Description:
The chain has helices at about 35-50, 75-85, 115-130, 150-160, 175-180, 200-210, 235-245, 250-260, 275-280, 290-295, and strands at about 10-15, 20, 25, 55, 60, 75, 95-100, 100, 110, 135-140, 165-170, 190, 215. About 45% of the residues are buried. The strands form four sheets. It has a seven-stranded parallel sheet, with helices on one face. It is of the alpha/beta class.
Amino acid sequence: MPIEITAAAAGRWTLGDRPVHRMGFGSMRITAHPDRDRALRVLRRAVELGVDHIDTAAFYVSPGGTLKVGTGPARYATELIRAALAPYPEHLVIATKVGFRSDPATGTHEEAGPAQLRAQVEENLRRLGRDHLDLVNLRIVKRPTPDSVAERFGALAELRDAGLIRHLGLSNVRLDHLDEAQTIAPVVCVQNNYALDNRGDQDALIRECGARGIAYVPFFALAGRNREGGARTDHSAAVRAVARAHDATGAQVRLAWTLHQGPHMLAIPGTGDPAHLAENVAAAALRLTPDELAALDQQ
């Protein structure tokens, strides 16, 4: 009998007061393909498979945008989410990001100031068709020298107090940023770059988030150092061996490893391909043994 594919198999964590399945969906890649209906099908299918946590951002748009691909009219992930899922199920949490200003001419990003952050929040509200946002992550440019998020995070905290935002998070940050933000308002998640083959200096921050009851939501868990280039297919020998043992794919092993890093880890694999969507969600049920985890850690 086939195993049911469901995000619920990953278990639950709570974002503020919102319980979610730990297997979610990232919406960056749904804008790449010019077939709008395909994106809508992927989003609706994700919810059918139990996904109740969707990650997005105002700057997820094609042509151009974060992926720098595509042709035809502008396709915003936030507008596709609205078209596919509104009126939204009560259990669905939509997390978005603000903090970047894009220069269409150069493709570069700069950090937004408090007034621009408010404008970005209002843009998210308009494109998603909401009167409040479930979760807003402040996305920053992480620098090697000390810097502060107080002014920008404080501006979002004011919008939270005004009822436009329900919960706040941080993206691309260090522990000192988290410490500073928590003196201003509760932080329910940290969203940083982290993958099996691209762990960087994140392990200590992951442990600290777990100790504080804060969700850690890695982006590029499948892409690793490929980043916007997409999911890796050149898997290590260790990944391939574990995949064979479970009759799984390398991508599923990478996602399962991610979820095994702690009960507060949330996965948000993104795709515009319906087949890849089902494969990713199926990884929620993949359980790795201690020996397999050790082998993967040693690759």
